[in-house]
Here is the input.
Amino acid sequence: MKPMRRDAVDSAVLRRRIRLVVLIHTAERAGLAPLPIMHLHMFAYLSNALAPVWEMPVMDGKLLKRRGGPFYPVLQEDLDSLVGMGVATISNLGHVQDEQNRWRLEGSYRLNQEFADRILLQMAQFEEERRLFAFLQELAYALSSLSDDDFGHATTQDATYSDPVIDFGNVVDFAEWQVKNYTANAADQFERRLPGGARANSGEKLHLYLRHLQSRIHGRQ
Amino acid sequence: MVDSEVKGLTSLGGWANADFNGTALQNVGIGTDTDLPPAVRFIAGVAKLVRRRMATEGYKSDPIRPAIFLLEPAARTHKPDTKPQRIPMLDNGLTAVTGRLWFVNPVVVSGNYVEVDDLNDDALFKIVTEALQLGGTAAIVFDPRTSLPAVRYYPNGLADPDTVESIAITSSDISLDRIFDVIDRVYSTCLVTPEAQTRVGKLWTKGENWWPSEHAEDLIQMHLRVGLTTAFPTCTVRHEQTIVPGRLDLEIEESDPLDRSLVTRYAVLELKVLRNFRTSGASVSRQEVLDWVESGVKQAAAYRKDRNARAAALCCFDMRKDHSGEHCFDHIHTLASELLVKLRVWFIFGTSEQYREFVSKMQNR
Here is the structure.
């Protein structure tokens, strides 16, 4: 395998970090800030799993299945870097031990508007980034209908993450080597399920997916 | 098993037997307005919420005090010893809204509130403008004290109480005449001349040559959606639905406040842009325009039947050089009448000079 060029690596890191800034920003606009670490990783996971509903490319199509819910080590590194750069701030700081007895930082994030606004302003000049923003914003609004407790249980019911065929400690792959994205498929199911034969658009499908997820968390399905 | 299922394109894993219909029936309409401006979504979100709450049994025992909704998701409080309370599923109507100051996002599916005491209106406004320093934040006040509960929208915030608009929350039959009144307003404020059109959304590539923009139809549709959603905030305005007879431009429907699955479809609208020239400047024949109008009537009728809507209309936006008024419908009046399709046309001017000339000609008649 050929090693990746340095500028390609830098570009990938930049894209990831921009996406992270947008994740936190859209969460703030939805009333979800400050965003606890695990909620942020959950949001990132759903933004990958539900990206096809918005006809967006999946940024990261696989992750390790953990009992505690989705956790992206690379995203966490990026997040720590953003805090180091002053773009994001962390509150309610603490440490927790994960299921593999490793210590990790616990806290809640929000953006430092002074720096983040400049990034968001630049981003808004590109059509592709505006589409990403619109998608993440609607997903954040849909997520805002979950309680904190629902957030904690969301992956136990998410169509892809809860797949009993995949054991904890194995890889959940929905867009890397496989095309089995049960989450996006389930959201697409709503297109033709509305009363009177109306057609759901992408925004409505995101909200309906989250509403269905919530009813499963509460055992109503 | 079909191929797509084998490949995982439609498979649902553990959700294979899920009751998607149940969820869709209970939550229809949320997020449909995803690409509308936040202020418009805010108005629609609050109007639907208030209407829903007022229809519940619980509303009878709610405090008879105003509710203030602020388009500001970051909650804060004016009382040092209290913490805002989060309501994740605010839109289900199960939570009392009155006597509270709400912090919501534009979709109003969730919110945080702080209780406000029994204060006079001035003191209430001062909490927002002075104690919280949110006088410039868009706000909606729901006042249940009047015999007909009032909902008022302050686009510039409560610090500018004179700029206020009334919001309709009572459900009432929405006729085509009311819809046309709204389109008239949208036309005169946003469409009639290039000056009325926003800088980012011009309808013309070269107005002086009568060359419409390639986005003209999309822009007109967007303006109409904003206008109709604002005028009928308890309704859902769906757009560009692909259904069996074709692609339905606009549909105005309203859910029952308590049972969202009971939907009244007031109207379907087919939109057509009539033009002499394409974006490139290539000319369009007279016959093509006549055919567009005729197919518009047939489409509107087919959509009304498919959607079981109460009414159907063909709305033409005439971007041609010569203003022929209603004559563009001369060849299809009988057909439209048979198919119960109402016809309306609005003329869009390429320049403000053309508009002034037209007005002066009309005055001299």
The two ends of chain B are 72 Å apart (CA to CA). Chain B has a mean pLDDT of 91. Residues 35-166 of chain B form one domain. Chain B is about 30% helix and 20% strand.
